[in-house]
Amino acid sequence: MATWLPPPGSSGRTDLIRVFAGTARVLARRCGYKTAFKARPGLRAPSGPLPGYKADSRESFNLGPASEALDLVEYQDVAAATALDRVLQAKADRPATDPGLAAWTRTAVSQYLAGGTERLVPVRHPWVRVTTLSAPDARGVRRYEQCVWGRPYTSYDGSVRELWIPVASSLSNKDPDPSQVAAAAMVVAFGTPHRLPDRFHWKENAEPVGVDTPDGARLPALVRIREVSCLDGTRRLVDEETPGRISERYQRIGRPELADAVSSGEFIPGHDCEDCKLVPVCPALRRTSGLLGIEDTTQPRRIWSITNGRSYAGRPGRDEACAAREHLRRLWLPDRTGHSLSPAVVRGHAVHAWIQEQHESRPGVACRAEDAPDSSAPWSAGRWTVSEAEAETGSRMVAAHARHCPYQLSTVTTLAHERSLIVHDTAADVLVTAKADLLYRDDTSWVYRETKTDARLRTPRQADLLRKVPQLALAVLLMERLDSDPTASRVELEVLGPGGARLMIVDPSDPIRRAEARQVVHDLAVDWHTDTTALPRPGQHCRSCDMAEWCQPGPLSGPAAEQGVRL
Fold first, then answer.
1. Which of 320, 367, 421, 567 sits at 20 to 30 Å (Cα–Cα) from 177?
2. Cα(168)–Cα(232) distance, integer angstroms
3. 132: β partners
């Protein structure tokens, strides 16, 4: 059993581990140490020189209000419309639900309830599998609580238990993570109804509930797990097993993953940092001051990227700024229109994936034009499939990369695709993140490359380059924070088209370029940082916005209204 050490200066109890089944899911870039810390609800993070965790008062979970409304419907026989009205209104500890999230919540509740519960009885209190030890084990733990997220049901006689997992999208054909299913089924099969403590008393033990439903405490003969799409109401049976087979499977593939998760000492900075209470003292997180040019630590700590900035402010020279768009995308509301994944966007992802596979399968070997996929039929790379209409264009873009493949240089060593970089800007208390299309080491210096696909092979003028492609501006500011000589490092833009490729280079040590980069990044972040309302701004851009279905911005104003734009 691996030994896990709490962070220096922390306090509180360490004898309780509470873990949800989702923790068993194998996630390559999950921060192991945060997962292990979070599984110990009695631990308090040490204080540090930086502000502690500041939660956003707005709802951050896209199914949070829907779950509350379903609780009222299923456990208190409240009509759905009344339940929604009660849940979406302002409360003492939070404002009224954002209008876009409220619109999605109404759809989610309606679609979840549409098919009924198939003669099942809702179980009011969740099943929790509790293991109590007579003495602390090697982890110093005496009590283990295993939980699962979802909506629990039982048959009238208690012989069958079902867990329904709401999903905020259409259901995928992808098989679920087997370790996560094994851990979830174990809780459903052998857990008993418990009352989990609220967030203010999370460090306390879950309390057993003597009477829940007539047969809610009876252990079942059969367990089923289903996914339910809150977008279209479709359902999928994920698992159906007897307790005996569930126990055997859990010991084989569920328990080892949970054991590793609660014992991990690996720090991996990334999106896990956003709500992590260890940010002020994390030894692996890079810190800087002034990256965004903002001095204000009063706002909730959030993650920001160029994607967030563009989503909020729109593209340069276009009247398409909309705070609601960025906020609703941050909530991961579903895109039923498919606007966010047009054929050209899918083609671009596939081109990136194909090049990545070439680099990773043949490290050190320069790409050749003939390595491109067959252009006469649809082709796939990673999880992306290019349509027949886009196949030739995409194939020629892949072939064009050969001209500027980093492995053409004999001095290139380390090369990584989709590498996430994250820096804590302490002056703004914002976690700034960037995902480099390609990050490689040329001799002693790092090179940050952004790759764009463009059917017309357009490239910005050097004078407009950082504003047109702000990812390059952020890269310029990040380069000095990498462990390399900034005077020899460079930032590259590779543009791939069906007729060739172009490479543009930015010198991050150039003071004029650095000043321009600081202004570009500041302009994209400053209004977002202070905005706590995320109001919609209707315009022509609503026509192609993936969030328009939920945004419901109301009457247009300004030029768009004058032109008679219809949404």
1. 421
2. 10
3. 143
| Nearest C-alpha neighbor of 393 from the set 498, 499, 502 | 498
Count Cβ atoms within 10 A of the Cβ of residue 465 and give its class: 0-12 exposed, 13-18 middle, 19 or more buried.
buried
Chain centroid to Cα 482, Å, comes to: 25
Residue 151: beta bridge partners? 164
As a whole number of angstroms, the distance between CA 346 and CA 341 comes to 6
- Taking phi over 0 as left and psi of -120 to 50 as alpha, with beta for the rest, 269 belongs to beta
SS3 content of the chain, % helix, strand, coil (to 5): 35, 20, 45
pLDDT tens digits along 236-259: 999 999 999 999 999 999 999 999
pTM of the model: 0.89
Partner residues linked to 420 by β-bridges:
435
Instruction: Please give the pLDDT value at position 215.
Output: 57
Please name the helix (run of DSSP H) or strand (run of DSSP E) that holds residue 286, with its range, or none. Answer: strand 286-288
Q: Can you list the positions of beta strands (E) in 366-511? A: 379-381, 384-386, 412-425, 430-442, 445-453, 490-497, 500-506
C-alpha span between 156 and 20 (Å, rounded) = 27
Whole-number Å distance between alpha carbons of 458 and 470:
16
Instruction: Indicate the residue type of 156.
Output: Y
Residue ranges in 217-276 assigned as alpha helix (H): 243-249, 255-261
Residue 158 β-bridge partners: none
Find tokens 């089923």 and name the residue. Answer: 224
| Average pLDDT score over residue span 307-334 | 91
Whether the CB-CB separation of 166 and 63 falls below 8 Å is answered with yes
Number of CB atoms found within 10 A of residue 289's CB: 11
Closest CA to 60 of 331, 275, 332: 331
For 171, phi then psi, to 5°, come to -75, 140
pLDDT tens-digit readout, 68-115 = 999 999 999 999 999 999 999 988 777 889 999 999 999 999 999 998
Q: Give backbone dihedrals phi and psi of 235, rounded to 5 degrees, phi first.
A: -130, 150
**Dist. CA 286–CA 541, nearest whole Å:** 37
- What distance in Å separates the CA atoms of residue 346 and residue 378, rounded to the nearest whole number? 12
Q: Tokens 């952020």 correspond to what residue?
A: 474
Q: Counting runs of H as helices and runs of E as strands, what totals does the chain give? A: 16, 21
Residue 347, number of CB atoms within 10 A of its CB: 23
**236: which residues sit within 8 A by CB, 6+ positions away?**
171, 226, 227
**Could you give the maximum distance between any two Cα atoms of the chain, in Å?**
75
pLDDT of residue 560: 35
219-246 b/e (C-beta count within 10 Å ≥ 16 → b): ebeebbbbbbbbbeeeeeebbebebeeb
d(CA 416, CA 139): 36
Q: How far apart are CA 285 and CA 194, in angstroms?
A: 37
Helix (H, G, I), strand (E, B) or coil at 207: strand
